[in-house]
Amino acid sequence: MVAGDTSSDGGDEAVDGSDGPTFNDPMDTTHLRYFVAVARAGSLSAASAELKVTQPTLSVAVQRLESRLGTTLFHRGRDGMTLTATGRELLLHATDALAVLGRAEERVRALAKEDFGRVVLGCAVELAPTFLPPLFAGFVESFTGIELDLVNGAAAEIVKAVVERRVDFGVVVNPPRLPELAIAVLEAARDEGLDVAADQYPYAAAATTLATIVPPALLGLGVDACVAALGDLDVRDMVRAEIARGISGWENVASDPGWDGIAIAYAASHPDWSGRSLAELGEALEADPMDVAFDALVDDRLDVSIVLHCMSERDIETIMAVPWVAVCTDAEGRRPGHPILDAGKPHPRTYGSTARVLGTYVRERGVLALETAVAKMTSVPAARLGLRDRGVVREGALADLVVFDPDTVADVATYADPARHPEGIEHVIVNGRVAVLDGAETGERAGRLLRRG
Questions:
Q1: Residue 181 pLDDT
Q2: Do residues 389 and 379 lie in contact, with contact meaning Cβ atoms separated by under 8 Å?
Q3: Rounded to the nearest 10 degrees, how much is the dihedral formed by the CA atoms of 225, 226, 232, 234?
Q4: Which residue among 191, 235, 285, 292 is the one 20 to 30 A from 88 at the CA level?
Q5: CATH number of the domain at 12-112, please?
Q6: pLDDT at position 96, please?
Q7: Residue ranges of the domains in the chain?
Q8: Strand partners for 151
Q9: Predicted pLDDT of residue 53
Q10: pLDDT for 115
Q11: What is the spatial distance between Cα 233 and Cα 431, in angstroms, rounded to a whole number?
Q12: Burial of 102 (0-12, 13-18, 19+ CB in 10 A)
């Protein structure tokens, strides 16, 4: 059965510099379509407006074709772009080739409508009386070539059957939330013997780079070209349109969670912006938050870090309870008061992840047992990384130890004031040498590079 049209609109992903085709690959039809559009329009700007893609995307497509063919396809001048002799030859063949592909696509789509095969449908018993009679009547009439098998059961049984791939489609009442379903999928894979693991930090915000708001094809041009493009108001308008429209496979954070949920962690050219959301900065500067973001990316050549408020506390607890999901910080090394390592307002996970698990999720909320939490931040990740004799307390193991008070341990780092070490951790021993004693650093630097095995 054809589940749906999964073809793209010939969008910018095809010319992404990091993941796109190389010149040793077969000629990309999207590049050819872009070339034909530019040739017929006579300029990048006109073709850009027609195709609803950015001018840099078209420029890269043409340049790649020229590099692949080892020739020049256009004469470029103030009055626009005109085809060279080889360009005219390519246009002739490209037009014919795209026409053939178009006819072939139409024929394939026509064949695809003649559905046949076998589909297993899982339906929760609660839905059967109202759902199945009209479904079967319409289905048998519309899809005469498909054999439909039915599996009935409780909603949880149907979900399990879908996860285990015994059922193609499932119709249930009150389906599980995404984290529960994701855990079920991962655990089914682990049960099959696949080497699958995961880790988690205990906060409802992520941290990444502001450059994630830029469409993939524009980022693929490289830093210099991308920065130059973002300084062009026309390109900014194109990017606005792509953000509003969305691109398949692109995590469009400018749309969700939006400018209220994106806070600047550090921008070297604008240190006073640290900790403030783009919506707040836009209001203060009387500017569109998107332009504030573009300005920051141009001023700091894409090197701007952000905190992204985009997750659910309930989902955190659901994942936290899974014993094989390790605890992590997903953060770089930081140090309060350091001229470089204390720049901006980083994510509080940098300082507080482990203490937050022990204080908030073990002591206060009872999401998991203390022993399970300790294992998730010691033996579980050590085993995953292949670190022998670490992450466990036993004779002969390396003495990496943390002495904490389970009644008082707590993270005190916040989004507004993240550079704060947790409370309730009294002593830290690294490779058998005391690095922290009674809550104060001793000056010992016993850490060393760890290798697998």
A1: 82
A2: no
A3: 110
A4: 235
A5: 1.10.10.10
A6: 78
A7: 12-112, 117-200, 205-309, 313-441
A8: 122
A9: 84
A10: 60
A11: 56
A12: exposed
**pLDDT tens digits, one per residue of 252-302:** 899 889 999 999 999 999 999 999 999 999 999 999 999 999 999 999 999
Backbone conformation region of residue 396, classed left if phi is above 0, alpha if psi is from -120 to 50, else beta: left
Which tokens in the block code for residue 434? 């005391």
How many residues does this entry show for the chain? 453
Grouping H, G, I as helix, E, B as strand and the rest as coil, residue 122 is strand
Instruction: Judge contact between 252 and 214, C-beta under 8 A.
Output: no
End-to-end, the C-alpha distance of the chain in Å comes to 48
Sign of CA dihedral 148, 152, 154, 159: negative
Q: Where are the alpha helices (DSSP H) in 165-288?
A: 178-191, 216-219, 223-230, 233-245, 278-285
Instruction: At 319, give phi and psi (nearest 5°).
Output: -75, -35
Gap between the Cα atoms of 244 and 233, Å rounded: 17
Distance CA 268, CA 337 (A): 17
Give residue for tokens 């994630």.
Answer: 212
404-to-358, 390, 401 alpha-carbon distances in Å: 10, 18, 10
d(CA 331, CA 346) in angstroms, rounded, equals 9
Q: Kindly report the number of other CB atoms within 10 A of residue 232's CB atom.
A: 14
For residue 122, which phi and psi values (nearest 5 degrees)? -100, 130
Please give the Cα distance from 242 to 45 (Å, whole number): 16
SS3 content of the chain, % helix, strand, coil (to 5): 45, 15, 40
User: pLDDT tens-digit profile of 75-104?
Assistant: 988 878 999 999 998 888 888 778 777 776
pLDDT of residue 5: 33
151 C-beta neighbours (distance < 10 Å), count: 16
Sheet holding 117-124, edge to edge: 146-153, 117-124, 169-171
Question: The whole model's pTM is what?
Answer: 0.67
Label residue 124 exposed, middle or buried (CB < 10 Å: 0-12, 13-18, 19+): buried
Tokens standing for residue 127: 């839905």
Alpha-carbon gap, residue 61 to 29, rounded angstroms = 10
Q: Which of 79, 89, 101, 95 is nearest to 36 (CA)?
A: 95
Residues of the chain with pLDDT under 50: 1-26
Q: Which of 233, 275, 281 is nearest to 54 (CA)?
A: 233
Residues 293/213, Cβ–Cβ less than 8 Å = yes
DSSP letters, 87-110, are HHHHHHHHHHHHHHHHHHHHHHHH
pLDDT value for 402: 97
